[in-house]
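User: Predict the structure for this protein chain, please.
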Amino acid sequence: MLGKIYHRFDLLLLLILSFLGLLMFIITSFSLPLNYEYFLFRKPIIGLAFGLLSILGTMAAILPKECSKVFYCKKNIAQEKPISSNNASFIFGLRIVHGHHPSCENFSSHEFRIKDKSFCAGCTGLLIGALLSLLGAIIYFSTDLFIPNFFIIIGLLGVALGLILPLLDLKQTVLRLFINAFFIFGVFLMLIGVDSLVQSISIDLFLILLSIFWLFTRISFSKWNHLRICYECGNKCGLKAA
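Assistant: Here is the predicted structure, written as structure tokens:
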């Protein structure tokens, strides 16, 4: 798979920088002295910042717009129905788009169905991860819980899996959903782990900024992967990059 993206040095650079940032964060976190800086309002500020980030991530997943909008079938464009009723629902008058992949066997593992509705496994996973992280942030940043250091390592694993997911040819929809949820929740585990370890507002903010870059990298690779699947497909159904 890596050999197929040799012509996309921008994506390779994003991936390299993402893992360098991950490595830098780990080295910095475990090399600093415990409680090396004191800031009275550290937890409220970090809790609010991460909470807002989780809320924005949740809204991005459920607002009436396609997550990872990359392509449409020409047939659908001609019919002016790029998003079918199976891929969207109305909640309190708001149109929620929860499925955006083509009806193609090559994307069968990217979506799952509940009754007559189709749901994007990736977006659903990100939504679940964001909601769990928001709930966890409310609990952690409003209490005096102590988090063991190994939470950082577990979170690191979730972030690493999320970053390389588009490079993996996963056929299991449930696993795809789980990895996306673990990706977002992994950031939360790293945040509360390092906050409990060094209690540094600068390190916390650094991680939050890194998480935004990681998500950008993840989305960029996901879009590329969707296009790659279409261009390498032999069915020639007329999918077109938007």
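Strands lie at 71-73, 88-91, 94-97, 111-114, 117-120, 239-241.
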